[in-house]
Each structure stands twice: as structure tokens, then as C-alpha cells.
# Entry
Amino acid sequence: MPTHTQCPRIAIVDIPGKGKGVIAKQYIPPGALIISEKPRITLPAQNSGMVDRQGLVRIFQALAALSQDDSEFIMSFPCAPSEDPILGRLKHFTPCFGDNAFGLCLTISRVNHTCYSANGSPNASYRWNTRTKEEDLRAIREIQEGQEIEVSYMSDITNYESPPAYLRRKFGFECCCEGCTRPPAERLASDQRILAYNAFVPQVHSRFGKENPLQILKDLEIQILILCEEGYIFEVAGRADDAFELCASYGDAASGRQWEEICRDRYAIHLGTDSDDWKVAQRLATRPQDYVGWQALGRRNLKGPSPRILEYCYRNIETARAESTESVASGGVAQSVASSFDLPSAGAPVKLSKGQKKKAKAKAKKQVAQNSDKTVVTM
Ligand SMILES: C[S@@+](CC[C@H](N)C(=O)[O-])C[C@H]1O[C@@H](n2cnc3c(N)ncnc32)[C@H](O)[C@@H]1O
# Structure
């Protein structure tokens, strides 16, 4: 079983205010697979990732059969005083998707959480690898020697529910990350931008064929800048893919290819080049003509990503954050892109129509349901 002692790049240490945590013992580049681990303890689960009464009985039977060492390992994880000492600790197990199980790993389960925000965002992400039956921990940003390795316990995409409230409700802890501890006005401004962004996303495809495609591409650029400023770099892949689909629908292979390359390169960092998502994006970036809606809207030359988008998507996110902190407070780089295009900024707080609010709420509900797959027991 791989342990941190076999992975000289990381170490488990005490982190003030969070219990134990994992730090990098050397520089780790974005996209690097930090460690793959088979869970030390595996508990049964249903396919859905949720647990019903019968499932709980099976879990307690499995717990009763554990060795003393394994039970002590589980009890070494934190549990809020208000929670049941066993159920509270089961929350640290992560789903082994497709394998009807939840696992607790020696090292990866010690990785703490940080929220996506303009003030800081996770530098790593973990996923169950159904092929190797291991949990993969991957660097999604540069990690410097001595820096804590942090993932997001929430979805990697924008979320409607306020992160501190979600973490309190779902995991029972008060998050002390930079995003949660910033002044309420700053948090509110970010929440409003995310809300406006979430209202924009479901409309994109319905605009294809009805509106000027160059206008849609400009709007997508603004949304990508918001994502970069708010730290949601994974979701950039989705918007770049939307831009690809638009270009491919008009048969513009050159522009489409450039957009899909952004999508592919984000997948390489977050999911790895052995993931299905990366393989599809790689195929479309190479042969945009394979897109199912190729030339469905006719033939027209559109635009690839602007130099600013390429700079934002490819440069070190640390630099982007340091340089954009001031601009986020004042409406963000997205605001200045809008002015240079002479467009209203989608980044500034907007008043949502009833329909937009409804759509944003529906999306939020869906995301909350997806997020719930990340925990073992829902109370
Ligand atoms: C999966 S465990 C991570 C390892 C844990 N810190 C330990 O000591 O074993 C999750 C728990 O770590 C703590 N934690 C993780 N991220 C945190 C954060 N951003 N702020 C405060 N506590 C955090 C909480 O107690 C949470 O329930």
C-alpha cells in the first residue's frame, strides 16, 4: 500500500486550526500526480453514493469487524462535539465511484479543504480512479516546497450555496480558509458575480443561431475571466468547450481548435491525460470536424481566444491572483474587457430577472445534489 513515506514529495503535519494536514516537501508542478493510494479502510455503499438504513447496518457490521488499529485510525480523524462520534467520522470517507464503496486513505484523507475564491483556491484535487482502484491526488496549480496541499470538498465548479454554510451543514466544521475569512462585503461581491455567471451559463446554447456569434464569444471571454478571477479554473474548460462548439457549428476549424485546446489542457491538469474527457477534447482539438454539430449553423469565420484569455488561462494562477486582487474589488479585469468591447460587464453585480433566478436556483439544486455524492452519509 503506498504511503506518504513512499512518496517523498509530501508529509503529514499538524496545521493550526485544522488538525492534521499534508504539505509539500518539494516543488510540485501543476498536473503532477502527487500520490495514488488504495484506501486503508473500505466500507460498503450503494451505487448512488448515498446510504439508506440498510446500508448503515452493513457499514456498522463492517466497522465491527475492523482491527483495533483500523478503528483507532478512524477515531484519529476529527469530529465536531455536536456530532455522533462514529457518523461524524464517516464523513471523512470519500466515494469510490463505480465500486460501491467508500474509502479512507492513510495520506489523502488527511488533505484539508480550501474554498474557491478570489483570495485563494485549492492547489490539488482528488478523484477515484476506477481503472486502478486507487484515489489519485493531482496538483492543479504550482505547489511550492513547504506549502499546504489543499483540495475542495465541494464541487470543482461554481456553486450557488454559500461555501461556509455548505461546509457547516455537510461536514460540520467552520472553514478557516482565506475565502471564508475575508470581509463580508468582499464575499458578497464574489457571490453576486458567481450568481450572475450561473445565470449566464444555461442560456449560452439557446443563443446559438439566434444571436451574433461574435457577441456570444465576447460574453464567453468575460465569463472565463470571471472564473479565473474567482479561482474556478477547472470550469474554464466548460466555457472554452462552449466556444469550441459555437465555432464548430459555423465550421470554423482554426478558431474551434484554439478554444478546444484550452479545454483539453485544463483537463490534462485536473483529470490527467488518461481521462476520457481529455481524450475527447484532444480528438476534437485535432479534428474539429468530428463535432456532432459541425457546420450545423452554416459557414462563417469567428474568433479564437484573445491574447488576454490565453494569458489568463495559461499563466500561473498565483500571478493572476496577485495581479487581479485589486481589479476584483473594483469590478475585475472582466469589467475592463467589457469596456474594451463596448459591452455591459457581465462581471459587475447584476439584477436577475425572475426567469434567471429560477434557472440559477435549478442549477444550484442540481449542483447540491451532485455535491452530496461526495459524502458518505447524508443526515
Ligand atoms: C478529511 S479531514 C482532513 C484531515 C484532518 N484535518 C485531520 O486532522 O485528520 C477533514 C477535517 O479537517 C478539518 N478541516 C479541513 N479543512 C478545513 C478548513 N479549511 N478549515 C477548518 N478545518 C478544516 C475539519 O475538521 C474537517 O472535518
Notes: Strands lie at 10-15, 19-24, 33-37, 41-44, 94-96, 101-104, 112-113, 124-129, 134-139, 148-151. Residues 17-21, 77-78, 92, 109-110, 112-114, 171, 173, 175-177 surround S-adenosylmethionine (CB under 6 Å).
